[in-house]
Protein 1
Amino acid sequence: GTLAGVVEYRNVTFAYPGAESPVLSNISFTAQPGQTIAIIGSTGSGKTSLLSLLPRLYDPAEGEVLLDGVPVSRMDRADITRRVALVPQRPYLFSGTIEHNLRFGKTDATDQELWEALQVAQGDEFVRAKKNGLGSRISQGGTNVSGGQRQRLCIARALVSRPRVYLFDDSFSALDVATDARLRAALKGITADATVIIVAQRISTITEADQILVLDNGRIVDRGTHQELLETSPTYQEIVES
Ligand code: M5T
Ligand code: MG
């Protein structure tokens, strides 16, 4: 069949409940299977808010978010969750084993699939080094693993669920540059025909993206490839130089 996972934001405006002014204004873009779309912009520009509308953590006031041509407002959340994996900016682990945390949402995954996901997420070594391996316990909130380890486990969890669409909210910034590069290289294979949307702080994380959206104060002010934006976007140049 045809590759599913087309994401389209159509003239989306969004304000948090009770807020006076919108945090996102007139956002439009399309992300196709096989593509990586990157979102960059200063803190508070609306990157996390933008991602949150696809899994319907919130619904926009105006415009539409579509998944394979269907407005997500008309889909049930379980259906969206099957197709879209969000790795949140503050990745969350719950009390239980590493295995439970990885299988969350996809209980029939094999051990081999778990290890493969860990390998891609650059998390296999530290899990293997633990006495109980996949059976090692994670405390509530994941306080007994480091921030970078937590991020990698949450990336692995997303991979285990084999979604059509991956949303990575600043998922690589707690990793050192070398680990970030290794992880993204490994990710390329496993996500090759999926749709990938990456929010990033570091330019090196997104230079190869098919399209970069530059967000400023809730608006897409510029868009293009890294090379195009270097030549045309003062906002992007500022981010590169910062
Ligand atoms: C954009 C406000 C936030 C900011 C704006 C998540 C969240 C955000 N906001 C709320 O009022 N309630 C919320 O639950 O929305 O915030 P963002 O989308 O989190 O921005 P960002 O992801 O680009 O920032 P950062 O720091 O992660 O780079 O006015 O107060
Ligand atoms: Mg954010």
Protein 2
Amino acid sequence: MHSSCLQYCIDLPLEKEVLTETVEKAKDWALMHGISMRSKEHFTKDNVQIAPFLLLPTSFPKQEFEKAIQVQKILNKLMHIVAHDYDFLKKTLASTIAVDEFSAKLFHIYETVHAEGLAQDISIGLLRSDYMLHGIEDSKIKQIELNTIASSFAGIATRVTQFHRYILTELEHSDKLINVPENNAVSGLCAGLIEAWKLYNNEKAVILFVVENVTHNICDQRFHEFEIRRQNPKIRIIRKNLTEIISQAQLGPDKELIIGNNVISVVYFRSGYTPNDYPTEREWSARLLIERSRAMKCPTIHYHLAGTKKVQQALAQPGALDHFIKDGSIARQVQEIFTGLYSLDFNEYGDQAIDMALAEPRKFVLKPQREGGGNNVYDENIRTQLNSMKESKERTAWILMDRIYPPLQKNYIIRPGDMNNCEVQDFTCELGIYGIIIGNAKEIKVNKQVGHVLRTKPATATEGGVVMGIGALDSPYLV
Ligand code: ADP
Ligand code: MG
Ligand code: MG
């Protein structure tokens, strides 16, 4: 791995006294403005603690940032079209659902509502397309994945941008603020949910947040809730997990989703993307009930499936985009941000991919059909995993991807607890761009790019889950 050639916003290290004072101030600012989450170790609903964040914004090439911003509406539309292509989803996911029970159950819900006819034909996407920088001298963005369900951190990211503007000013670098782009991610995403609420056209109907049994990332979720209420105080929000939903929800005569006295206009999933969210068949029935209802869903089951890694891999195959994007120059723009993705299906291409990865595992990442971090396989473990499954059908549930080694950049990470342990370290970052899209098979009603987040992790970590405490929230300093 190599150090970045990108210019930093401030020369490091900071002088010791300045650092100590700045870190203390930063922690208090973070707590007072909601750069916070609930502790994993000592969970209680009475407390939050700071979410890990970077003291200074991390440098990011301006041109590549702008490219990511510019391509977002194209990706939104692409996802929308892919999600509405039943034949493509069925063909692409066939080998995966044959062996992966979780994907199969999602697909089964899709088949069910597709056969019955959709009670609500409009889908809402709050998407986040993630990128890392590839190449040292002349770094280019490469897409890591595109999330169509529970795209998180827009709430906290908005605050982190404000924090970095504050801290640069405190350090007497206010001339640099121009390089920290404005970020209104949370208001943009919430405007999408409000737009959907309006389309439902029932002033009394509420928005349902489908949440985990235990929510660590509470501030991010509440930022969304409070922002919706700020933009439109008429809209009430309720929070339920899938287990509560199955015992409390029912469909009305016109397939309205009803919980207690509330008709639900919009269902916003902040859970439901991992097998853990479905401990029993009852939670699966809850997902099906929601899908069968007339409520608007963020996402619908077909949007969820369009965001799987298998679909991402299929879209990256030479020529695949031409089917969905008729303008060749736009298709090439999208292709350019993709990196190598390989199917492990039972055929000669799958065999070739496996041989390639066995020969040089460090050049690849092995990914199952899972979300939420911590599921991918790296380095020598790729050999172990591939050797254990290469003769079995199980391998078709996985995809292989070229591994990106982004440039290293120096910064300070601030975590709860380690006040005295703040030293300059090497990090790599991942940029996420948020988009909203609303529409049905015939028409796209809303398509926007609405903001960004940077997540940064120590150079030594393969994955940077922020909720898991490895990665940290950050914002880009454009150079
Ligand atoms: P998830 O849906 O679990 O977030 P991702 O595909 O985003 O799955 O992978 C999780 C993390 O793994 C990313 O945030 C990134 O840190 C790392 N990662 C994923 N793909 C690559 C890659 N091709 N090269 C390097 N790191 C990767
Ligand atoms: Mg990810
Ligand atoms: Mg994901």
